[in-house]
Amino acid sequence: MKRHVVVAALAACLALPASLALSQTKPPAAEDPVVAKIDNLSIRRSDVEMARLSLPANLRQVPLEAIYPRLLEKVIERKLATVAARKRKLDEGEIYKRQLAFLSESVLEQLYFNSAIDAQLTEDKLRQRFARAMAGFKGEEEVSARHILVETEAEARAAIKALEGGADFARLARDKSVDPTAKENSGDLGYFTHDRMVKDFSDAAFALKVGQMSKPVKSPFGWHVILLEGRRQAPPPSYEEAIDELRSEMAQEVIQETLEKLRAGSKIERFGLDGKPVAAPIRQ
What we know:
Blueprint: H1 2-14, E1 34-38, E2 41-44, H2 45-53, H3 57-60, H4 64-87, H5 94-120, H6 123-135, E3 141-150, H7 153-164, H8 169-176, H9 182-185, E4 188-192, H10 199-207, E5 217-219, E6 222-233, H11 239-264, E7 270-271, E8 277-278
Antiparallel strand pairs: 1-2, 3-4, 3-6, 5-6, 7-8
Helix pairs in contact: 1-4, 2-4, 5-11, 6-11
């Protein structure tokens, strides 16, 4: 079923113009083999990878090997259609020229901003931003807990009685918990923030002292017995963990700064749909 969803999404996405994460470099021929031929026309790996870039972000995360056969077929279909369209001289019509001009501007816009981002998002600047962010970092409170999940309050109370009588929490979790992961992790949930668990469970866990065991706690999943094992402030992320978010944040800033400079250096007049002058919109 998942495969059919991916195939349908590929077909829909490749049928429409899309925003591309364009590369400004052409791969060496050795790294760009011919992957199909239509008469005398060659289709290269880079053509397939370019088509992949037109997909939504969630599909771009799928390994190329998983979607390659269908993606290649879509590229072949597109090439067949474009060759046929040129034979009918559709590329000489006004509609084609107007749409081509629009798409050309879109590509140039992206290349322009990409070049600005590449020039400004240096390793030094990224690390400086990371250092400033970490200087003011204050991690959320986290707790570490184990739990035993059972179906009824009576079972939860029986578990508490056994624990108070000396039973080992981890062993009891493996033996009695209906949590499907308990057999492997002995009920260990690791560290988590308050918002990571359902409210009733988190409220009970965060109210405990380290080493303290809860009374039976009801949640949508059943009845829990919780043992608090640790409490801390969440540690700061590493540079490697933060780099993608930092890069995205700084890229947006570069785009905005670049646009401001372009606006400042140009005379811009706006007109309504009726052709009459309108005031510039108030920008936030």
